Amino acid sequence: MDADIEHVYRERGIEGVRPRFAMPLIRLAHVGPLTIKELAAALGKTHSAMSQTIGLMRREGLVTTTPGADARTRPITLTERGRALVPFLEAEWRATEQAVAELDAEVPYPLTRVVAELEQALLARPFLDRLRALLDTTPSPGSTRSATAGNPGPTSARHAGPPGKPTA
Question: What's the predicted TM-score (pTM) here?
Answer without folding.
Answer: 0.70
